[in-house]
Amino acid sequence: MRLRLWFGLVIWLAVVLALLKVTDAAKLSLFDPEQTLVMKSLEAEFEPQLTKTLKTVSPNLAKRVFHIRADDCICETLAENHSQELSQSLANLGFQNELIDLKLMPQLAEFVPATPAVAVFNDNEQLLYLGPYSVGLGCLTNNSLSQQISNLSQVDYLGSQINADVKGCYCHPQLASLNKQNTPSLHLFATIVSG
Q1: Strand 64-69 vs strand 29-30: parallel, antiparallel, or unpaired?
Q2: What is the enclosing helix (H) or strand (E) of 47?
Q3: Nearest of 186, 178, 181, 172 to residue 37 by alpha carbon
Q4: Which helix (H) or strand (E) holds 84?
Q5: What is the pLDDT of residues 31-64, one digit of tens each?
Q6: Quick check: helix, strand or coil at residue 100?
Q7: Per-position DSSP letters for 114-153, written without gaps between them
Q8: Are 70 and 76 in contact (CB under 8 A)?
Q9: N or C: which end of the chain has fewer CB within 10 A?
Q10: What is the pLDDT of residues 125-144, one digit of tens each?
């Protein structure tokens, strides 16, 4: 009986320490702390440049959802439920989901200041949404933007929604040195199987 009590105490302590580590790593931060996305989105060439960059991944952007990740970010794990919810919702509307590793496509960092992020294009290859999946601490909150993003695809196009001025669990990859290298750009993408 005493052994079970000690074993239970050790398990409980391990879970508490793991949760503390996750919440410490997942502090709230601004999606676009230096306002680079906000400023860039005001330029006339913003959407054409973003479109050109993403066409290197997929020549046809009609009804495409690009899930942009950087692999080593705890926030991406926390936002996975929101990502799957959005993927399924848009797949039900005929959208194709694609995954992009930002570290393997550093030229996209000009448009995406943090991960996890998502870019959604309508059937006319117009940008509907660019920004995070949720606000707050990932799956630890119910502040998912999935329904709002899905709704954008079902109404008349009024322009793109750039969601940069929000706080949540976001990682800011240091890709500036990758952008300056004279190496050929690489990109990796995979179709996410949804439903």
Answers
A1: unpaired
A2: helix 46-54
A3: 172
A4: helix 80-91
A5: 999 999 999 999 999 999 999 999 999 999 999 9
A6: strand
A7: SBSEEEEE-TTS-EEEEE-SBSBSGGGSS-B-HHHHHHHT
A8: yes
A9: N
A10: 999 999 998 887 654 545 67
